[in-house]
């Protein structure tokens, strides 16, 4: 395995903002408006309809960054638009490159000072595949689910993102790509937050990305990842074939999953898999299961066999991803030979399994880590208590004892 050493460029300009530091800008972001909403705004003000189309095209072209850049509009109209809407809800972004230049982690500052992250990954063309540019985006600032191995979970929940704040991460990356005459090919909702706990906004954002008049990205190129919000999965199923659904599984045994994915205490793993199965049956789309592998915790033969039993016969694909080390946990990622052994046991049960060594790890794991840095360091005693608690909880789980901890606050019906 190659362990890629991050090349970190210095960070300038963003103020540390662990929580909202000022009121939100109430003007809607243009990226969150549906074409008919924008058309109605122009109609009500007596502007010709083609002006609305010009603004929509400019907003999604990737070539303009402000209303003032839309030179085809009269000056007073640009001012009127600027008073009513924000061209961009991402006020400032800082980019760090890792893997040489192949991964760009962006921290975006929102109008109330909150920070969210997106990660742009470049995959050069190969003999068997075309060049790809995949963006991993955030759906919430923070997350209520609180998975202990996740940097976002560490931050707790701040707030849901607005539709425009979700799509503006995409517009931001698209502008960077267009400047290089490249285009985004895939979007994954694997950044900060639990997309199915902000489902209305997430569905609006997907509609914008999918709409040929706006971003025009095919549904097959969009993946939504969930830690297992069962009512949300059912809502997606009712909508019919859409995008790829990824389930963050991590453990097939409830006692362990209660610790690794605390909302398992509300929707246990069998219910999650049943909802995913129904999704695959109704939509015909194969479900992806993600497993973040933690050394000595969820990577044993017993776990592999429990997962094989749980997923045998499912229309599913499993991705095994060694955990990226996150501060404040006592854990490290599973060594590759153990990941391979786990994969073999799943494959022996007929389950399609892929190991994601480097970039796969970047996808989810990268998100939340930079924002967590800005949130400042907890005191050593807090870190020590948290580690001790996790060691005790995982030891009890490995003995098969179910958690008596409550379901995290904020994990309600979506
Ligand atoms: N909340 C959603 C989507 C965002 S998290 C979910 O949990 O599915 C996206 C992915 O990143 C999840 O599969 C999560 O398990 C993974 N992830 C989080 N922290 C990680 C870490 N430290 N190492 C590797 N993967 C991690
Ligand atoms: Fe939230 Fe997903 Fe992180 Fe869990 S892994 S805390 S659900 S963002």
Descriptive account of the structure:
With 414 residues, this protein is of the alpha/beta class. Residues 1-17 and 360-365 have low confidence and may be disordered. The protein is built from 14 helices and twelve strands. Helix 7 (230-239) packs parallel to helix 9 (269-283) and helix 10 (301-311) runs parallel beside helix 11. It has a ten-stranded mixed β-sheet, with helices on both faces. It has a two-stranded antiparallel sheet with strand order 5-6. The chain binds S-adenosyl-L-homocysteine and iron/sulfur cluster.
Helices and strands, with pairings:
Layout: H1 35-44, H2 49-61, H3 75-84, E1 92-98, E2 103-109, E3 115-123, E4 132-136, E5 140-142, H4 151-155, E6 157-160, H5 163-179, E7 186-189, H6 199-210, E8 222-226, H7 230-239, E9 244-248, H8 254-260, H9 269-283, E10 287-293, H10 301-311, E11 316-322, H11 336-348, E12 352-355, H12 359-366, H13 369-374, H14 380-398
Parallel strand pairs: 4-7, 7-8, 8-9, 9-10, 10-11, 11-12
Antiparallel strand pairs: 1-2, 2-3, 3-4, 5-6
The chain binds S-adenosyl-L-homocysteine (SAH) and iron/sulfur cluster.
């Amino acid at each position: 395995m190659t362990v890629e050493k991050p090349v970190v460029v210095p960070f300038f300009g963003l103020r540390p903002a662990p929580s909202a530091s000022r009121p939100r800008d109430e003007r809607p972001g243009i990226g969150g408006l549906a074409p008919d909403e924008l058309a109605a705004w122009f109609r009500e003000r007596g502007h010709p309809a083609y002006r609305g189309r010009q603004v929509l095209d400019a907003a999604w072209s990737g070539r303009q960054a402000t209303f003032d850049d839309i030179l085809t509009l009269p000056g007073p109209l640009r001012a009127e638009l600027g008073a009513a809407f924000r061209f961009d809800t991402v006020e400032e972004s800082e980019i760090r490159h890792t893997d040489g230049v192949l991964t760009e982690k962006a921290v975006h500052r929102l109008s109330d000072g909150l920070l969210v992250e997106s990660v742009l990954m470049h995959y050069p063309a190969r003999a068997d595949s075309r060049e790809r540019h995949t963006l991993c985006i955030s759906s919430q600032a923070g997350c209520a689910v609180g998975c202990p191995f996740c940097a976002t979970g560490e931050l707790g929940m701040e707030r849901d993102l607005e539709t425009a704040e979700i799509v503006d991460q995409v517009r931001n990356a698209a502008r960077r790509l267009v400047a290089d005459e490249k285009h985004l090919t895939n979007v994954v909702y694997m950044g900060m937050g639990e997309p199915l706990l902000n489902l209305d906004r997430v569905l609006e954002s997907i509609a914008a990305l999918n709409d040929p008049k706006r971003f025009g990205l095919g549904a097959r190129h969009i993946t939504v990842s969930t830690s297992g919000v069962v009512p949300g999965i059912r809502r997606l199923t009712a909508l019919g074939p859409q995008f790829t659904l990824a389930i963050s599984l991590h453990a097939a045994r409830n006692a362990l999953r209660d610790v690794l994915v605390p909302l398992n205490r509300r929707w246990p793993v069998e219910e999650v898999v049943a909802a995913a199965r129904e999704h695959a049956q109704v939509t015909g789309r194969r479900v992806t299961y993600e497993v973040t592998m933690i050394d000595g915790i969820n990577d044993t033969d017993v776990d592999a066999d429990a997962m094989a039993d749980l997923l045998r016969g499912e229309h599913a694909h499993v991705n095994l991803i060694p955990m990226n080390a996150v501060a404040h946990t006592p854990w490290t990622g599973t060594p590759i030979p153990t990941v391979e052994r786990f994969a073999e046991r799943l494959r022996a049960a007929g389950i399609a399994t892929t190991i994601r060594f480097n970039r796969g790890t970047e996808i989810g794991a990268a998100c939340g880590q930079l924002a967590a840095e800005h949130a400042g360091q907890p005191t050593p005693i807090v870190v020590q208590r948290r580690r001790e608690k996790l060691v005790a909880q995982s030891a009890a789980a490995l003995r098969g004892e179910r958690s008596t901890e409550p379901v995290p606050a904020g994990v309600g019906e979506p």
